Amino acid sequence: MKFHTSHPALLAGLRLLAMCLTALPVKAADDPGDEYFRGYMMLKDAEKMESEGNLNGAFSLYQQMAEIFDGVARAHPEWQPGMLATRRSLVEKAMNRVQAGLIQPAAPAQAAPAAGLVIPQAGPAQPGTSGPLPSLTEALAQWEQTWRQRMTELETQNSQMQVDLGKWQQWYQWASGEITTARQRMTELERKSATLEAAIQAMQVEVAAGRAKASELDALTKEKLAIEVEYRKVSQRLNGAELAAREASQKLSDASLRISELETERNKALAERDAAVKERDTAMTERDSAASARDAAVAERDKLKTQNLGMTAEIESLKKANPAAEEVKKLIAENERLRSDLESAQKQIVTLKADVSRKDQEVAALRSQVATLQGEIATLRQESAAYQTQVADLTLQLKNLSSEGGAMLTPELARENELLREIIMRQLRGQYRQQQAKELVLAELKKMEGVSRDLLEQVQELETNRLALTPDEEKLFTDPAVREMLGQDGGIQGTLIARIPKNDGAAKPGASPVDTLLNSANEAFAAQRFAEAAGLFEDALRADPQNTTALVGLGYARQRENKLDAAAAALKKCLAIDPGHDLASFHLGVTHFKQQQWQDSMASFEKSLAKAPNNARARHYLGII
Fold this sequence. Notes:
By secondary structure, the chain is mostly helical. It is built from 18 helices and no strands. The protein has helices at about 10-20, 30-50, 55-75, 80-105, 135-210, 215-320, 325-410, 410-445, 455-465, 470-475, 480-485, 515-525, 530-545, 550-560, 565-575, 580-595, 600-610, 615-625. Helix 5 (about 135-210) packs antiparallel against helix 6 (about 215-320). The protein is flat, with a radius of gyration of 61 Å.
């Protein structure tokens, strides 16, 4: 702060500030917090005097502290009554302790409350060499009493530490409140001081200009000096409260640590007691076992003593009887023979036991082998039955073919069969090449980092899946619709399902409208115009609603259009008219298969195979299901 020292009012203010600073340690009788803090600050000096042995000085300081705390309690009964009561109690205890030291100066200093207890040994005290030994019960009772005393002392110390912990917590809370209040007050005083400083500077300008009186400037200066004095007092309170907070925090830490140590010591004592009880129980069990063994040994000793007496009496009687030497020799020889037989029998028993164990193991192994062989025999029997069934079926088919082939096989049929066999072989070879190409594609894909030319060629190879026929092979297909299909890019494009039975293989000029519609529908179907074919089949059904050929064709056309519900409806209507229609059953099974209705699909395929057992496609679908 800058002041104009030439002004007389400012000089008077500085003199007043010097007087205030001279009389700074004043008693704030109207502030209980200041009085409490003054008494608390005397505690350090009193404890230091007491530790140095100056008991008179310590007692005097404790008395002053008691007077201060009593005065605060009387003047301000509503101010922190619990904390004041705690502090007054501690001061009273300290005064009693110092007074006891003054009365008995030669007595050793009392141990600090936080000092640890001397833990007695877990076991019973060893008796001296003289005098009778105490019984186990007395020793255990003595140890139990010592343990209980130690536990009582630990509980007492723990309770005292808990009380001290609560007191120091209250003290810490008070110090924290004092710190908060002091900091708030200091902030407020700093704000007021800054405001007054600005007002003083403005007033100095006004006084210099003659627009204000010097007394107004003096009043502002005195008010600022009072604020500075109060700021110093609050600063001292803040320092004291921070010191008290640090001390309370340290005391709290010490009390918590001591409580933890007491808890550890208590747990250790409990563990020692449990170990001692366990050791006692073990010792008592061993004692009982030893007593039982002793009783058994005494009984055995008495029995042997009785036997000894009996044998002695028998020997005496034998001596008196004076038996013949020959009889004695016979008895000894018989005894040796019996002993030898007994040893041989024992060895034989050991050998037989080993043989029995070995034979049991062999029997278990043989049983396992027999079970395995039985399973294999059952499997072989099933395979044999299946083979026998297949052989019987093949034999029957061979007989049928032999009986039919002898009458029907002509050179033309033989040539036709040969051509068909070549077609099938070519198809199989093509499928094999496609399979190899597929495997090559998969291998290339596994190690592919970029698209290779080999991969593209193999993918193009997979697209060539048509079956091409030679001119001689095409001559075998005499049906006009099939011939038309063969003319589509030189390959078979589809399968003709609905066909009008013909006696001469061609439509007559005077055919009925239904036959004409069916032929047109077949041609549209062969050209893969399925929607047009379905419309023609529907026209035929309007002319003849009971025509099963039109119903089957309509169902298959709808199936190729992927209109599965309409296809199933047409095929079911055909089966309602002709339940034994194998082609309708087959295509209904395919429709259900695409709808993933596996049970219905299986039933339809089985019904179709009942009428047409050579339908390989139906068996193929059944195998997939």
